[in-house]
Amino acid sequence: MNRLMGVINLDAEQDLLGELTYFRCGAAVPFGGRYRLIDFVLSNMVNANMSEIAVFTRRKYRSLMDHLGNGKAWDLDHVKGGLFILPPDWNDPTDISKGELQHFHNNRDFFARGHADHVLITGSQHVSRIDFEEVFNHHLHTKADVTVVYQHNPSILSDNRFSKKLVIDEKGHATALSNDSDNPNHYMNTYIIKKDLLLDLVDSCISRGKSFLFEDGIMTNADRLHITSYSYNGYLAVIDSLPSYYQESMKLLSDQHFAQLFLSKKPLLTKIKNEPPTVYKKGSKVRNSILANGCVIEGEVTNSILFRGVKVESGAIIENSVIMQRCIVEKGTVLRNVILDKDITLTSNKTLIGANTQPYVVAKRKVI
User: What is the DSSP annotation of 77-101?
Assistant: First the structure.
């Protein structure tokens, strides 16, 4: 899709996943047994044939850069175009921009050199399998200046207090942002905008001392811009807190949610790691769980998600938990409602129990 370039804007996303974002940004948090949160939006872009994609990141991006590399896993290691990771390395002494507008101002070359005439801007906290090609066709068909993406979903409002809502009129035009708890139109932090208009609005916002493009540049001009809306009805998980991360992870254990996220006709891409199949040793018991490659299971695993290379020794019991890469759970240890980050060793006969609404979380590389 040569007419559309992409920006994954991580600058405005808060690191609200507790111990999981102590050492990484939210976009790099593992999810679903094999993936990182950024994999879903990046795969959606690649599946829409987008070949010019930038990632705006400001802090704790080492893990993200290690995961993305040169974009080869997503077929974005191009001579021209491809994947651009753009951290805040700016040296313009005349720059007066603030907030996320600093990224748009200081990375203006990305837009100037790109061949596309429209830009898709999104984040990483909304996990979906949205068809961006369909959204772009809707944008072109309606001849809109801006197309915003939302989901009509009242249940999201009760689970995520940081969500934003859109006010949409009878013609499908987005007229304002709202904090009304009764508004079911959940804004997915995703929109398509004409590139020339984007750059004009960036300059206008900077000249007025503003910080945010969508709120200060687009929605404040809703009376003069043609802002249409696109209603997305597929799988959506909003990962903006530890409880939401845990709850959405547990939902993947249902056949319906698993199929919606992972069994799409279009591929879900991530960094490739060659590991052997999981080994289930004599006496092991596994029920209703997702296990990635490279695990060795001797104990019991129920209603849980295990990432690559997890070892569960005999007599260990894991229930309703998320266990990330290369963790070791030794003999006799019991885990219920627990999230273990990477490279954790739990020695023999330990017991960790969290609550359904508030899991017990252990930051990575600890020995307990």
Answer: --SSSEEEEE-S----TT----TTH
Residue 338: CATH number of its domain: 2.160.10.10
Q: Using the structure block, give the residue that is written with the tokens 């929109």.
A: 191
Reported as a single tens digit per residue, the pLDDT across 190-226 is 999 999 999 999 999 999 999 999 999 999 999 999 9
Last residue of a domain, one of 196, 228, 262: 262
Q: Where are the beta strands (DSSP E) in 133-182?
A: 146-152, 165-168, 174-178
Helix (H, G, I), strand (E, B) or coil at 245: helix
For residues 190 and 336, give the distance between their C-alpha atoms in angstroms, rounded to a whole number. 36
- Tracing tokens 């979906």 back to the chain, one arrives at 128
Neighbours of 157 (CB within 10 A): 17
What burial class does residue 314 get, using C-beta atoms within 10 Å of its C-beta: 0-12 exposed, 13-18 middle, 19+ buried? middle
Does 172 share its domain with 220? yes
Q: How far apart are the first and last CA of the chain?
A: 50
Provide the token pair at 171. Answer: 């013609």
Q: Specify whether the CB–CB gap between 260 and 235 falls below 8 A.
A: yes
**Dihedral-angle region of residue 337 (phi above 0 means left; psi in -120 to 50 means alpha; beta otherwise):** left
The 10 Å Cβ neighbour count of residue 76 is 22
Pairing of strands 118-122, 285-287: unpaired
Question: Are 216 and 328 members of one domain?
Answer: no
Query: What separation in angstroms does the CA of 47 have from each of 129, 264, 266, 269?
Result: 10, 11, 7, 10
Residues 51 and 87 reside in one and the same domain:
yes
pLDDT tens, residue by residue, 286-313? 999 999 999 999 999 999 999 999 999 9
The structure's pTM equals: 0.94
- What CATH code is carried by the domain that includes residue 78? 3.90.550.10
Q: Does residue 327 sit in the same domain as residue 186? A: no
Mark whether 78 and 155 lie in a shared domain. yes
